[in-house]
Design goal:
Strand content: under 5%
Number of helices: 4
Number of strands: 0
Shape: globular
Distance between the termini: 22 Å
Radius of gyration: 12 Å
Order of helices and strands: HHHH
Largest sheet: none
Structural class: mainly alpha
């Protein structure tokens, strides 16, 4: 499972997480609008609806590091 670690401004700290949140915004609004942010609930909701996600959202989620893994240096 992937988590969106947040920076002090409340946005995801990892660049890939920020990109995923942007790419998945329409999917989140359509599929997970009633989920409260925090604790990985939105990500879990998106994963639960993986078969309905847009190609952009699926691709963005695939770039996220797994929970507990350090981001890869690029």
């Amino acid at each position: 499972m992937v988590a969106f670690a947040q920076s002090q401004d409340g946005q995801p700290a990892h660049p890939a997480a920020r990109a995923a949140m942007k790419a998945c915004q329409p999917d989140r609004q359509a599929l997970c609008k009633d989920e409260q942010p925090g604790g990985g609930r939105i990500l879990a909701c998106l994963k639960a609806h993986e078969d309905k996600l847009s190609p952009d959202c699926k691709a963005a989620l695939a770039t996220l590091p797994a929970k507990g893994q350090a981001p890869q240096n690029q």
